[in-house]
Give the backbone structure.
Amino acid sequence: MANALFSFTPFDFNGIPPGVYSDVEGYEKEELVIKGKQDTLFSMEDLGQVYPFCSEYGAYPDNTVAKGLNYYKEKQQRQQQQQQSPSPARSNYLTLDDYFGSCFPAPAQPMQEVKKLENVTKPCKATSNSSPLSSYLELLNNYGSGIKKMNMSPFGNSGDECNPETRKRLSTEEIIRVAGARYIQFSDQRCDEFSMLMHPFGYALSGLSDEETRDVELAHLLLAAAEKVGYQQYDRASRLLTRCDWIASQRSNPLQRVVYCFAEALRERIDEATGRFMAKELEGKVKCESLGHHGLSINLAGLAFHQNVPFNQIMHLTSIQAIIENIGSAKKLHVIDLAIRSGVQWTALMQALADREHRRLEHLKITALGLLPQKEEMEETGRRLDSFAKSMNFPFTFKVVYVSCMAQVKEELFETATDESVVVVSNMMLRTMIAAPECLENLMKVIQNLNPSIMLVGEVEANHSSPTFVNRFIEALFFYSAYFDCLETCWDHNIEHRSIIEANFSHGIKHIVAMEGADRIARNVQIEVWRAFFSRFRMVEVGFSESSLYQASLVLKQFPAASSSCTLEKNGKCLVLGWKGTPLHSLSAWKFSRERFWRSFVKYSF
């Protein structure tokens, strides 16, 4: 086997190997020439209501603003003058301003709007000996850089933008950003939680409505509690969480629901750390997260999620368009689905194939890969697909491959034929195996041997795999804030179904916040990390055609409530779906290279 020639070291999903992309990009140009424009942004003229991905917040949360406020420029000049004649008290001490002095407004200045970022630079690397508070504040600084200091009357005499009654309400994520800026200000003033509780509403919150002010204060308390947990100050954290419990509710606005879920996760982390219950008990509570995309199973709430929230349909139908374009004149198609769930997307594939007047397909075979506990659900999915195919008189076969562990997956289990065009689809599946690298490596080697015509990978576009608790907490808080805001917009008419979905989201939050080590099963990483990992298996990223991208925009138009807030953007050749500028999902397409082009990459150790 060709794989025997390569000995891979374990891949580090917490960092991207240096020097990978320049070599891979050169190889891609030599290997594949994709027709059409590859790297241009979507335009309103070409794709309808599709907004630029960096419209409000910048491309990714790990980026920060390069241009600081004049206040901090003056402060830095004063600091430089002080450094020329340092006092003994400051000679060996780094203040908060030394770390994060460029992005937030000065203390006691009002904040009331979120502005577009003008410049984005790479984040500063934290020193290896930085404290938990330093790391915590740096991430808040990076995320909160969209908050801009305002003058007393920046919009002329009308003052409409300053009026909470006339301006648009802040989104859930924007409230978290304001809370992050406020938290930095409190930290700069060395305020403790007692001062914060005694004076909850009087600190730089002018211009916000009463509800927004309460929400900012609530988010502030949550951030303070997480920081205390990072310091292992569990008693102080518990007091802050008790305050959160008084305010937050599962049945209130999105911000309160997010805080409620994260406060629960922090409490479980405290309980586990203090021995109030064993880690295995916590693992049992959140195990369902590893079974699929946010724990969604074949139930009414899951189907309602598919119908009301645009992400799944955009990814599914864009994938189907890419499949049809890549099978060419093949008469037989074999789709291997690594996480089929309800399988509703494959009914759309059948319809699309049946409508083709030329190159009609002789047979479609779908093989679903799953674990033994999923047997009943997958068999029910097969029965529904088979019934649908018979109603259309469409040639179709469904097969399920069961394994107890992904390390047991073998090439021969899929029973592929030489006259079949093989396609592999992985939707929110690979992330569940990051914690079990031997399983992930085995599965990828099997797929490599199958040599599919195309492999489509849908994943969560977020960085939730950091070994550092505070990093994961901040990343997850902004991610789920955007998602809860999305659910509120798309799904405000069915509170019961929305609550079921958010309860499953809560399991994911507990995995990220309360778990450590191997107990964290599902881990999300961004597309750059997947690119580095896939390069180990001679995989080449291919772009989506203009037809596929147009298909994505047409699907989005079917969701009027979401069309103005859901964002579609290209990251290289990958399609990224987001909500009000926050990345949530990625969809990428891959092919496996030929042997003769890969020999130059043997020398690289990833």
Summary: The chain has two domains: 17-47+293-601, 70-255. The chain has a mean pLDDT of 74. The first strand starts at residue 332 and ends at 337. Residues 17-47+293-601 form a domain with the Rossmann fold fold (CATH 3.40.50.150).
